[in-house]
Amino acid sequence: MSIRRVFFWAHLVAGVAAGLVIVFLSVTGALLTYERQIIAWAEKGSLALPAEAGAPLSADALATVAEQIGKGAATSLVLRDDPAAPVTVRTGRSNTTLVDPYSGVVLEDGAAGVRAFFDYVTRLHRWFAMEGVARETAAAITGAANLVFLFILGSGIVLWWPKKWKWRLVRMNLVFRRGLPNAKARDYNWHHVFGIWALIPLIVVVATAVVFSYPWANRAVYAAFGEEVPARSGPPGAAPLANQSQGNARMDGDPAGQQLQAIVDDAKLRLPEWRSITLSLPDAAAPVELRVDSGTGGQPTRQTTLTYAADNAQLVSERGFVDESPATRARMLIRFLHTGEALGIIGQTIAGLASLASVILAYTGLALAWRRLVTPLLRKRRVELDRRQG
């Protein structure tokens, strides 16, 4: 048996074994393509901005509102450059409250249903929305499916690679062909066309998923740069802001003394292209940290963390993407290359289209496998039945 034939059967068996899980991951991944933008759009609908809105409240006043809302446990404020966008008060890692930046009134969260939908789809995507011990089993299945999918993509390259590089032969696999004689020929053509055009994005999406799925893959990323895996202290791909894991027991309960608005104003001057600012709500004497984002929210290269002294609002340090270690930068990019967000809205779109392409790849691959493996058996059985009846 030739090497090419070995790859063919390995490719076919892997596709049949993991095909349905790959379809599930691809569909849920496609649904998550514009999650960040859709939630932001839904949140804007929570704020009915009147013509006489006036100037927004200061960061100090908003911090006081946040403390009242969170009962002393609020961890951060998210300010946006859009005057029609509400301020987000975060308590812990996941609880959010929307606040009118002009009045400080708590708003009805128009994005609650949208956020719940995406949260459910995310849990489906990661572990079939299972809980407890079943979640570990589901995560093992999705992780294995990603690893198998990566092999399918690699073996697909081997099978596609032309024996002779002639444009006429290559072109047959690059474009949709008309007038094909049957569904088998159509599926074969589609399988190659979608596979070739989506190959590079899919390799990126799937390979990054493998890093999430297996500790050894994550360690390999750091080992490639000669570094050790750091202790987990926050969401992958983002440096945690100060005090986000605990409440903010201020000594005097008066954020105005910490000159938060002066700090925010200075940050805006330093980074005039800012689109959102996540302001930590520190303890009384703790430094104040701001994560300034000039991108879409998923571009680590466009995020900068500024640290200020609480007593005099003077900048203590400025840390951006280039200041991180090589392995940390790679890991941050991996986190957002998986969703395409590292490349902005265009990257998200490419990742979403690649996910949809993988659904078609799985369908056409399973259809071709059915015709090769099952149809002959059914035909043989039908012939035997006809012989017995005759």
Number of strands: 7
**What summary fits the major beta sheet?**
7 strands, antiparallel
* Helicity range: 40-55%
Tally of separate helices: 11
Order of helices and strands: HHHEEEHHHHHHEEEEHH
* Cα distance spanning the termini: 40 Å
Shape: elongated
- How are strands sequenced across the largest beta sheet? 3-2-1-4-5-6-7
Average pLDDT number:
90
* Poorly predicted ranges: 235-240, 242-256
Secondary-structure-based class equals: alpha+beta
Q: How much is the radius of gyration in Å?
A: 26 Å
Approximate strand percentage: 5-15%
- Total count of domains: 2
Keywords: Membrane, Transmembrane, Transmembrane helix
Pfam family, one: PepSY_TM
Organism: Actibacterium naphthalenivorans
Protein name: Putative iron-regulated membrane protein
Give a topology summary.
Layout: H1 3-31, H2 35-44, H3 59-70, E1 76-80, E2 87-91, E3 95-99, H4 112-127, H5 133-160, H6 167-172, H7 183-213, H8 215-223, H9 260-270, E4 276-280, E5 288-293, E6 303-308, E7 315-320, H10 326-337, H11 344-389
Helix pairs in contact: 1-4, 1-5, 1-11, 2-4, 5-7, 7-8, 7-11, 8-10
